[in-house]
Amino acid sequence: MQVQFLGATNTVTGSKYLVRHGKFSLLVDCGLFQGYKQLRLRNWAPLPLKASEIDAVILTHAHIDHSGYLPLLVKQGFRGNVYATAATRDLCRIMLPDSGGLQEEEAGYMNRHRLSKHSTALPLYTRQDAIHSLDRIETVAFGKAWEPVPGLRGSLTHAGHMPGAASVRLDDGTVSILFSGDLGRPVDALMRAPDPIAQADHLVVESTYGNRLHSDHDPLRQLADIVNRTAARGGAIIIPAFAVGRAQALMLRIQQLKEHGVIPHLPVYLNSPMAAEATRVFLRHQNELRLTPAECSALSNAAHVVGTPEESRELNARRGPMVVIAGSGMATGGRVIHHIKAFAPHKRNTIVLAGFQAGGTRGAHLAAGDSTVRIHGEDVPVRCEVAQLDSLSAHADAAEIESWLRGMKSPPRTTFITHGEPDAADALRQRIERTLRWPTHVPEYLETVDLH
């Protein structure tokens, strides 16, 4: 068995691991690259083998940096099965068509305003391409063994993080490898804790927060302070948020603050039809959540859903205190960038960054305190307050990853550290070598390792 790292090396995007077993090949995750242009260009580059030569795909979860390449893979000729949990399948039905639609909208905008350096801007794939790819998904239950390709036994365990998120273990009878996927936290606003780690000869572990610890500040208090001071200025609170996970956590927190009278009863708009649909998926898979029935009810009634583009544009003309939650979480696309364009130039408003911001994204530029942010070929001035809510992250931090790893009964032969910026991946490498004394390796892009 061999594994080749086709993504998530020295970056948190583009998760794709090519596993070769005998004459068969499969992908664990099939994600899009996001952020820096040199990373996004990899989405257009050919894979090291034809799509038709890949026999199967296993998705750890539905986030676009783990699933968003799938429509393009099918478009290129992939005809195998895509294995995922039921919740991941349900979320992909929402997120992949949305991804295709956003790419079509972005290309159309660039063409209408002649902002493309090419004669015609094209999407990687269309909404219809994404819908077509969904036919290939077959569901696999947590804890049930199956053969994704002949001779290779697979199993899934809960990874926390979001509904359906799984760690993937593959075993050919002589060697085994475990892919952590994105690990959730032991105590999360929404999700149950990750299952204890399974035993494996080799381990691929994410390192998104490998160089830091989450703040121990009360996220409710922190969020209340931001809302109250912005409302006192008569400003709007704009929150770029991932439609799956972060948007639901924010809506629940804000609703709880209003119910307890900690913040004023200002209007809350969820400007993401995808997030609204995702909320319904969350509530269909309540067994994966740690919410009480009352909290589930609060979540379902926490915001006014903005349906049409016209309603979205009307929000930009509103004045007075309000909260607008809109995708995407790193401000890489979607409706939120139009809100940033409208509200960032005014001091009374606040942009709240509610999670990790990958290098090269608009969110990262905002977090760094840049005085302008590039949107649709224009430099938009940032005069508003920019606040960060790291404590709402759905990713385990360095100490939480280490605690999860300590559950392994015996050390793996190699721990491959992926899905992290270079400083985060190297910090986790040092931490594991120092505290656990495990052999580690931070792989390079396209590196191949023989697991035997």
From TrEMBL:
Name the record gives this protein: MBL fold metallo-hydrolase
Family annotation (InterPro entries): Beta_Casp, MBL, Metallo-B-lactamas, RibonucZ/Hydroxyglut_hydro, RMMBL
Sorted UniProt keywords: Hydrolase
Top-level division of the source organism's lineage: Bacteria
Residue ranges of domain Beta-Casp in the record: 247-366
GO terms of molecular function: hydrolase activity; RNA endonuclease activity
SUPFAM superfamilies for the chain: Metallo-hydrolase/oxidoreductase
Entry-linked SMART domains: Beta-Casp (SM01027), Lactamase_B (SM00849)
Keyword presence, ATP-binding: no
Domain Metallo-beta-lactamase positions: 13-238
